[in-house]
Amino acid sequence: MQSIEDPYSGLHLVELSHVWGHGAPSMPGEPDAVLFRSVKHAEHGVMAHRLKMVMHQGTHMNAPIHLVQRGATMGEIGLEHLFGNGVILSIPKEPWGQVTAEDLSSASPEIQRGDFVVIVTGWHHKYSDSLEYFGESPGLSKDGAEWLVDQGVMLVGMDTPQIDHPLATSLGNHRNGPIMNRVVALYEERTGRDAAKDFPDWNIAHKTLLAAGIPTVEQVGGDVDGLLGKRATFQAAPWNWDKGDACPVRFVAIIDPTGAARVATGEAA
């Protein structure tokens, strides 16, 4: 794990965001980000970029309004959802696996009321522009999302392309889909199961969290492997954007190995 130590406080800061830039993976059905230097050093003595993109790319935060009409926008998310203590849970999953309420209730460290919860399935290692990354990823189940709401958590992050299982989204046979034409047949061929029966509800896990006012961070990455099974203090830094539905986010974990500061020590208390 790479971390930065603050020389004054001794706090360790750990990157939980994927590197973003030209060619960053974009969701199927969405255009790539377009960025270019409109002002350049050689010509103008200064540099400035222009950017056109969908906000749901790379490590990003979703506001309730993304899936809930009249829900809170990015700029209306309370600061208590952007900075706080929580857990990094290692819940490894195979392709098309689901993170269930049982997984979450038995995970270590134990989730406490008011926690930020980061779920690591191992899928961040596959971060790429590929059928596998987007179409075969694990996802949070309906009962898992309901369990997290009942625990009163403040934020939920996952290392997957989306919070929901891909076959519970428009990537499969749901509204506006299938965006990935092969993924339903591939699922049924490999598993012998019926995708429509296994995933009857559209974005149900995500909608459950957002309807409860719990923002989500998708595509967690960076050096998250170094904090598996630990507690940490988290900072998420989206834009204060009026009417915004989502935003790329710099997601950082903070630990204090000495225990001298009032942030998480990194131990699984």
Characteristics:
single chain, about 270 residues, alpha/beta, Glucose Oxidase, domain 1, 10-stranded mixed sheet, two-stranded antiparallel sheet, about 15% helix
N-to-C span: 21 Å
Radius of gyration over C-alpha positions, nearest whole angstrom: 19 Å
- Total number of distinct structural domains: 1
Question: Multimeric state of these chains?
Answer: single chain
How many strand units? 14
**Tertiary shape:** globular
Based on secondary structure, the structural category is alpha/beta
CATH class: Alpha Beta
Roughly what percent helix?
10-25%
Q: Which series of helices and strands comes N to C?
A: EEEHEEEEHEHEHEHHHEEEE
> Architecture in CATH?
3-Layer(bba) Sandwich
**Which strands sit side by side, in order, in the main sheet?**
1-2-14-12-6-8-10-11-5-13
Description:
The chain is of the alpha/beta class and 269 residues long. It has a single domain, classed as 3-Layer(bba) Sandwich (Glucose Oxidase, domain 1), CATH 3.50.30. Helices cover 17% and strands 23% of the residues. The chain is built from seven helices and 14 strands. The strands form three sheets. A ten-stranded mixed β-sheet has the order 1-2-14-12-6-8-10-11-5-13, covered by helices on one side. The protein has a two-stranded antiparallel ribbon with strand order 3-4. A hairpin with a 6-residue loop joins strand 1 and strand 2. Helix 4 runs parallel beside helix 7. The longest helix has 9 residues. It is globular and about 55 Å long. The mean pLDDT is 95.
